[in-house]
Amino acid sequence: MSGSAIETILGYQFTRPELLREALTHRSAVQGIARARGSNERLEFVGDRVLGLVMAEWLAERFPREQEGDLGRRLAYLVSQPVLASVAEQIGLAGVITVAPGEAKAGVKRRATVLADALEAALGAIYYDGGLEGARTVVRRAWNSTMLAQVDPPKDAKTTLQEWAQKHTRDLPLYRVVNRSGPPHAPEFEVVVQVGGVHGTGIAGSKRVAEQAAAADLLRAMGRPIPSATVPGRVSPEGSPT
Questions:
Q1: Both 18 and 129 in a single domain?
Q2: pTM of the predicted protein model
């Protein structure tokens, strides 16, 4: 896909196209000592901070009467890996990420971690190329439907489970990583959570997301509703997919 077509996907035209190439280069596609400079990891680091600032600014503007706690829950959801991956999918970013041939065959381009990282890297590249205003414009366009869908501050599965545990038991949820598999650039974590003798299991590409999936699995096992802000993941074979 041409650079102009990719810029159409992002809704931003680069004056320094090399930044765009770097933002869309997964580390599996870069070998040797140049790996750290040629992949999108450094831009992802910057883009993560840019996204947080732009989103915090937008939330404070949109919800002027809300306090820090509610704004913080909204922010955590909007910048979460699953939401990032969903936005990346919606704008077609999966089709333009460069990965190693073997990883492409394995479907790495559509992993939530890879999509989220690439989107953050793209925001980092846009920030370097066009400043905060360029990043702000892209974020507000790409996240508009997700932002508009938020009426009340969201609660995720971990928050819901902890509140339930505090109200009904003397125990707090205990999370344990019971298995870690996969290559370094695409790990998979299996997490088990326990409250009052009931267990839930979640599997995902990051520990945090696996914890959310485990909490959702436990809530499901207890017949409790799953919060709308719960991040997706894979649960144990006994449960249903989140």
A1: yes
A2: 0.69
Residue 70: CATH number of its domain: 1.10.1520.10
Tell me: do 29 and 142 sit in the same domain: yes
Residue 88, phi-psi category: left (phi > 0), alpha (psi -120 to 50), beta (remainder) = alpha
Residues 30 and 11 in one domain: yes
Catalytic one of 22, 41, 44, 120 = 120
DSSP state of 203: E
User: What phi and psi values does residue 77 have, to the nearest 5 degrees?
Assistant: -70, -45
152 is catalytic: no
Which of 7, 48, 89, 188 is catalytic? The answer is 48
Q: Identify whether residues 29 and 139 lie together within a single domain.
A: yes
Shared domain for 186 and 145, answered yes or no, is no
Q: Which runs of E-coded beta strand occur in 95-197? A: 174-181, 188-195
Domain end marker among 116, 149, 182: 149
The pLDDT tens digits along the chain (242 residues) read 556 778 888 999 999 999 999 999 988 888 654 555 678 999 999 999 999 999 999 999 999 999 998 898 899 889 988 899 999 999 999 888 888 887 777 777 788 889 999 999 999 999 999 999 999 999 999 999 999 988 888 778 898 899 889 888 878 999 999 999 988 877 899 999 999 889 999 999 889 889 999 999 999 988 877 775 555 554 443 333 33
Q: Which residue in the block uniquely carries the two structure tokens 């990583």?
A: 177
Q: Which domain holds residue 36?
A: 3-149
168: domain CATH number is 3.30.160.20
Pick the closest to residue 11 from 78, 90, 74, 117 (CA basis).
Answer: 90
Active site residue 48: yes
**Strand, helix or coil at 177?**
strand
